[in-house]
């Protein structure tokens, strides 16, 4: 499989995983004493994974239009965004006061024992971040082997503007 396709596939997988982490349960808070369990989805806890995924997909799309040097820079940016997603997935663990700020109904029971359990969302965010790091590194390492996207649409430098107009008048496309 071509490196461009691998980068595209990894970016799409990362977008799906990071986007899914925004909608799955990140933390569940059980206030106990028969009170209802409060679930916090990933987008309530942190908007970073979804934002990082969207920014990375935009960077991957731009690599298709860029030259080799810019591809390497954008690949490094994608790898950096993936590393930030990994840090967010491993580091964001809201505590009691933070949860009570997000959901005021927990503030009156925060003095009681609130049991927190992690949901699956941080693991999806972690996997998405790792996929982005891999996509960025592959883009950096293989940027010189990617096909130039603009070669098809460049005009023949030997053709004069008058010749191009004549080709257009004849119903031909001078860019082919």
Secondary-structure-derived class? mainly alpha
Average pLDDT reading: 80
Query: What is the overall shape?
Result: elongated
Count of beta strands: 3
Low-pLDDT residue intervals, each spanning 5 or more residues: none
The biggest sheet, with number of strands, parallel, antiparallel or mixed sense and barrel status, is: 3 strands, antiparallel
| Helicity range | 55-70%
| Estimated share of beta-strand residues | 5-15%
H/E element string?
HEEHHHHEHH
- Rg measurement, Å: 24 Å
Give the strand order of the largest sheet, numbering strands 1, 2, ... along the chain: 2-1-3
* Distance between the amino and carboxyl termini: 28 Å
Number of helices: 7
Task: Please characterize this protein's 3D structure.
The protein starts with a helix and ends in a 7-residue tail after the last helix. The protein has a 3-stranded antiparallel beta sheet with strand order 2-1-3. The chain is built from 7 helices and 3 strands, in the order H-E-E-H-H-H-H-E-H-H. With 176 residues, the chain is mainly alpha-helical. The chain has helices at residues 3-21, 42-45, 48-63, 68-91, 96-102, 121-142, 161-169, and strands at 25-30, 38-41, 115-118. A hairpin with a 7-residue loop joins strand 1 and strand 2. It is 57% helix and 8% strand. Helix 1 runs antiparallel to helix 3 (48-63) and helix 3 runs antiparallel to helix 4 (68-91).
């Amino acid at each position: 499989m071509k490196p461009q396709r691998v980068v595209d596939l990894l970016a799409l997988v990362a977008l799906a995983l990071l986007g899914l982490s925004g909608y799955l349960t990140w933390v569940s808070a059980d206030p106990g004493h028969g009170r209802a369990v409060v679930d916090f989805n990933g987008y309530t806890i942190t908007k970073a994974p979804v934002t990082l995924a969207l920014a990375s997909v935009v960077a991957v799309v731009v690599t298709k239009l860029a030259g080799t040097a810019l591809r390497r820079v954008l690949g490094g940016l994608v790898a950096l965004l993936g590393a930030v997603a990994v840090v967010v997935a491993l580091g964001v663990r809201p505590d009691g006061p933070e949860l009570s700020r997000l959901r005021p109904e927990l503030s009156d029971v925060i003095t009681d024992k609130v049991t927190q359990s992690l949901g699956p969302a941080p693991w999806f965010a972690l996997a998405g971040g790792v996929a982005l790091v891999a996509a960025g590194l592959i883009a950096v390492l293989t940027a010189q082997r990617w096909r130039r996207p603009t070669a098809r649409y460049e005009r023949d430098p030997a053709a004069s503007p008058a010749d191009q107009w004549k080709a257009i008048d004849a119903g031909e496309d001078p860019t082919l």
